[in-house]
Amino acid sequence: MGDKKGFLILSLIVVLAVMALSCKTLPPKQGISEDTQFNHGRISQAVYDLTREEVRLFVEKLNQIIRARDYNAWLRTLSQEYIDLYSSQAKLREISEEPLMKRAGIVLRNLNDFFTRVFIPSRSPDRVQIDNIDIEFVTSTKVRAFTTRTNNAGQNQREVLYDLEKINNDWKIIN
Q1: What is the DSSP letter of 23?
Q2: Which pLDDT value is given to residue 40?
Q3: Do 55 and 161 contact (CB within 8 A), yes or no?
Q4: Angle at 58 between CA 136 and CA 39, to 5 degrees
Q5: Cβ 123 vs Cβ 135: under 8 Å
Q6: Dist CA 49 CA 46 (whole Å)
Q7: Fold of 42-174
Q8: What single-letter DSSP state applies at residue 36?
Q9: Collapsing DSSP states into helix, strand and coil, what is residue 165?
């Protein structure tokens, strides 16, 4: 197992070195954001595969955090934007007013309540199969992670798991 991990790390270093040496960075056009200029076709298979594996490992770690109900570890997987949004009293009140929450008598008061009463139940690790994860690039640093599940009618359905952004070389959950 250690050899496989070492090979993966070495492969990552090689791919990143090749990318760094072969990429030409163009300055953004005036008035157009980087997100608008992103060209999905410029993602190589190697970058896609590497990113998919990074996201798979991130989701695997997140599943462990959810199983352990480790709030502090979960906080480290969140972008500041996500923390700010789901800590706001307005957002907590909005979620608490949803019919399912009202019927259950759940009132969210803080981010920890959101983690234990909403996030954990909606992201049960038993439902998120890490080997069945796919990604879609949104920008060069943002991806949407999907899983495919079979519904009661036997049809495959693609479901969004997380929107992620690579921030300071770590994947973080974003809105």
Answers
A1: -
A2: 62
A3: no
A4: 25
A5: no
A6: 5
A7: Nuclear Transport Factor 2; Chain: A, (3.10.450)
A8: H
A9: strand
- pLDDT digit string (tens) for 73-94? 999 999 999 999 999 999 999 9
Tokens at residue 82, please? 């996500």
Q: From the centroid of its chain, how far is CA 52?
A: 11
Closest C-alpha among 62, 32, 45, 40 to residue 143: 40
Q: Which two tokens stand for residue 72?
A: 């502090």
**For residue 123, with 0-12 CB atoms within 10 Å meaning exposed, 13-18 middle and 19 or more buried, which class applies?**
middle
Instruction: Go through the chain and tell me how many residues it has.
Output: 175
pTM of structure:
0.73
Exposure of 34 by Cβ count < 10 A (0-12 exposed, 13-18 middle, 19+ buried)?
A: exposed
Burial class of residue 124 (count of CB atoms within 10 Å of its CB; 0-12, 13-18, 19+): exposed
Beta-bridge mates of residue 150: 156
CB-based burial of residue 4 (10 Å sphere; 0-12 exposed, 13-18 middle, 19+ buried)?
Answer: exposed
User: For position 131, what pLDDT does the model report?
Assistant: 72
For residue 1, pLDDT over 90 is answered with: no
Measured CA to CA, the distance from residue 134 to residue 148 in angstroms comes to: 8
The structure tokens listed for 70 are 């480790």
